[in-house]
Each structure stands twice: as structure tokens, then as C-alpha cells.
């Protein structure tokens, strides 16, 4: 799909700007923190491989054909409406389900709560994409908060956002082998190119995600264990 898009732009609109939404996962386990755009690409799963491939195709078309291709490598982003396969949304759905049932303390189940990731509100991520499309020169730009937060800290924020006590438990079935302890990116290039910085604190992201799940159909909130 990315190849076809780039070919179409090359043939029909060579002066257009193409924003490719890549991912911080293309870097794989970081050699150094924060991760900069010059870090090698070592994708560790099929999704990350697909993103790295599209990313490299964008660089090829910029170099070979002079297209204005901006590659935005977004790290973890979260917000209301996100699938519960992602950690912030999973926590928010569990909290909404417990609050709907009147349970106290609120039970929360996770895998390993110690890994730290770089979370940005999805609304800030979209704003970064727009600024990059409007202002940035062709190239690669990380989109990230530049701070890492553990799952345990997310759970603490969740309790504060809901104003409840939380009872946390670890499900061994959710543990991942070879978990990367910490991922944190550098957004210096993005800031320099656009003036962007994240505006929505993670606490609000979590609170808004809980509110979204509280308004969701009861069957969707109750489905699954996450």
C-alpha cells in the first residue's frame, strides 16, 4: 500500500507532501536512551517490520525521486477510543467496568508492571503530524513525550483519576518473555522543526480514557479480561 501510494504521488502529484506514520517500534531494543532518529532499525515483531519497511520506502522515494516525504516515528500513544489491546485503554476499561459494578477497591490485572514506556496523548500525536506536514523538511522525526512511565505508575494515576483505591494483581499469562525494561525517545528534531511539545498530561489521558469507557456500551466494557 505504501509503495502504491508513493508511486501515485510520484506520477500525479510530485510536489505534494507525504506524511508516513511510522512507529518507535522500528528501533527495537534501544542501545541508548533517549532513542534518537539516527539509531539503527531493529524491528522485533511483524508489525514493526512492516512499519520499518514502509519507513525505508519513504526514504528511498525522497532520495531517488525528490519527493517530500516526512517520516513520523511515534512512540506509544494513548487516548479515549483506543483498543483495549493497548495498556492504557486496558486499564481504563477495567476501571470503568469496576466503577459501573460499584466495586471498591477497583481490581486491576496486568502483566509485569515494571517496564517503562514513552506515552503521548493521541491528540498531541495528531497535532504533531499536522505540524510536520505543514512545516517540516523531508526526513525522520520522533514523536514522543521524552519521559518514560511504568505500568505501575499508570495504575497509580488511574486510582487518582478515578478517586478510588486500586487492588492490583499480576496475571502470569500476561507476562512477556524478554521484555525491554525501558523505552524513551528524543523529540528534539520535532521541536526544532515545528515548535511542538506535548500539551496533554498523561493523567488527563487516563481520565479521558476512563470516561470514554464509562460511556461505552456495557457489552463492550464487560468483554474479555483486559
Protein described:
There is one protein chain. By secondary structure, the protein is α/β, with parallel strands linked by helices. The protein has one domain: Rossmann fold. It is 43% helix and 16% strand. The chain has eight helices and nine strands. A three-stranded parallel β-sheet has the order 1-2-7, sandwiched between helices. Helix 1 packs parallel to helix 2, helix 3 crosses helix 7 and helix 5 crosses helix 7. The longest helix has 20 residues. It is elongated, with a radius of gyration of 19 Å. The mean pLDDT is 95.
Give the structural class.
alpha/beta
Kindly, what is the distance between the CA atoms of the first and last residues, rounded to a whole number of angstroms? Answer: 32 Å
Radius of gyration over alpha carbons?
Answer: 19 Å
SSE string, helix = H, strand = E? HEHEEHEEEHEEHEHHH
- As laid out across the biggest beta sheet, the strand order is 1-2-7
> Helical amount among residues, as a percent range?
40-55%
CATH superfamily: NAD(P)-binding Rossmann-like Domain
Describe the protein's topology.
Layout lengths: L1 H11 L4 E7 L22 H20 L2 E7 L2 E2 L8 H15 L4 E5 L5 E2 L2 E2 H14 L3 E5 L5 E2 H12 L3 E5 L17 H7 L7 H14 L2 H5 L4
Parallel strand pairs: 1-2, 2-7, 3-6, 4-9
Antiparallel strand pairs: 5-8
Essential attributes:
single chain; 226 residues; alpha/beta; Rossmann fold; 3-stranded parallel β-sheet; two-stranded parallel ribbon; 43% helix; elongated
Structure summary:
This protein is α/β, with parallel strands linked by helices. It has eight helices and nine strands. The protein starts with a helix and ends with a helix.
